[in-house]
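Deliverable D2.4 — example input (structure tokens):
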């Protein structure tokens, strides 16, 4: 039984409902998908501690893949689900809860990137996480085009660079500024590889010029950010209890605004709702002019936001016995706390609002 400190109890915040106008969807083979993933994960020996293996086995990675990409065929979703398992294990076992240094992570992530770039060049020095990702990259050879594999490799580089930056902040007694934190967390949350896999799971391919359209880049970054902020909102109590972790949007806002956590929570919810509203408006505009492949990608981005929340609502990974519970039926709300069309005063993301055609 975990002993929760009095200080941790004081810092815990009430659960909040989420605004997300995207309707839910789920692949019908979620349970089969999860069984496959757990069986494979345990065979990879990613974690040496038995309690961590059991904790990961309860994470329902199959359900996460089934909710975020419900349109994919089972074989492709199995690879996506395995990716989830490896990156969650890497996050827990190497990054967050072991005090990894930036130097250690720079070495590990460099080996991971080499495995993604040249998966057939096997190394005797592969860690279990690197070896597992090398195998998944090889599996994708039969499912993805060379262009899609390049995009995934580039996306993994975004993610791994974020992990090293995150480790440097975890060694610092201070918290980052809000602007730095938003930039850091959209990378280190690990979303970039999964948005790169949307078109692989969907069986379509978006031209480079469409993905480089500033409106589409903004939508993609919004998904990375919404998932990272949503994760902060529902996982903060768990992080405080397990790791004493205050590298979180709430605590960064406390520092930035000079306020207590309850006021920071109100501000954080308003921020994520304003981004959710912008995503909905801009996605609607982009979809009107898009061809079928780009439209499916934009729809896949929206489904990812919703699917991630649907999974988190029931995932035991984030359950904290001592924390306030969501009221029955209270996970969702019908209206945003903030629907303003004004940019948030965060320089790294304020350009997103410039992409919206307000004349429409």
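Example output (designed residues):
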């Amino acid at each position: 039984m975990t002993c929760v400190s009095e200080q941790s109890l004081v810092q815990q915040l009430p659960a909040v409902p989420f605004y997300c106008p995207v309707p839910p969807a789920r692949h019908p083979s979620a349970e089969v998908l999860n069984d496959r993933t757990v069986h494979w994960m345990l065979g990879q020996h990613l974690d040496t501690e038995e309690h961590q293996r059991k904790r990961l086995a309860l994470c329902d990675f199959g359900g996460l893949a089934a909710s975020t990409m419900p349109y994919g065929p089972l074989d492709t979703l199995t690879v996506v689900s395995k990716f989830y398992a490896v990156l969650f294990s890497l996050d827990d076992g190497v990054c967050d809860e072991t005090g990894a240094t930036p130097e250690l992570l720079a070495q590990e992530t460099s080996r991971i990137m080499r495995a993604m770039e040249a998966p057939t060049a096997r190394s005797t020095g592969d860690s279990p996480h690197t070896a597992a990702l090398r195998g998944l990259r090889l599996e994708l050879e039969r499912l993805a085009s060379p262009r899609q594999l390049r995009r995934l490799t580039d996306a993994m580089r975004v993610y791994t660079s974020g992990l090293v930056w995150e480790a440097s902040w975890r060694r610092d007694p201070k918290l980052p500024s809000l602007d730095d934190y938003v930039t850091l967390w959209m990378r280190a949350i690990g979303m970039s590889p999964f948005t790169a896999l949307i078109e692989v799971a969907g069986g379509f391919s978006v031209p480079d010029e469409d993905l480089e359209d500033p409106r589409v880049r903004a939508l993609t970054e919004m998904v990375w950010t919404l998932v990272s902020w949503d994760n902060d909102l529902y996982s903060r109590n768990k992080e405080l209890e397990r790791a004493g972790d205050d590298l979180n949007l709430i605590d960064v806002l406390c520092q930035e605004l000079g306020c207590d956590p309850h006021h920071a929570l109100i501000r954080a919810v308003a921020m994520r709702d304003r981004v959710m509203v912008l995503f909905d408006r801009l996605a609607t505009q982009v979809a009107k002019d898009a061809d079928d492949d780009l439209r499916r990608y934009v729809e896949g981005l929206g489904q990812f936001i919703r699917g991630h929340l649907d999974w988190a609502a029931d995932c035991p990974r984030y359950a904290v016995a001592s924390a306030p519970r969501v009221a029955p039926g209270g996970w969702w709300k019908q209206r945003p706390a903030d629907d303003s069309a004004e940019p948030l005063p965060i320089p790294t993301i304020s350009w997103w609002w410039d992409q919206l055609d307000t004349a429409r």
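The chain has 16 helices and no strands.
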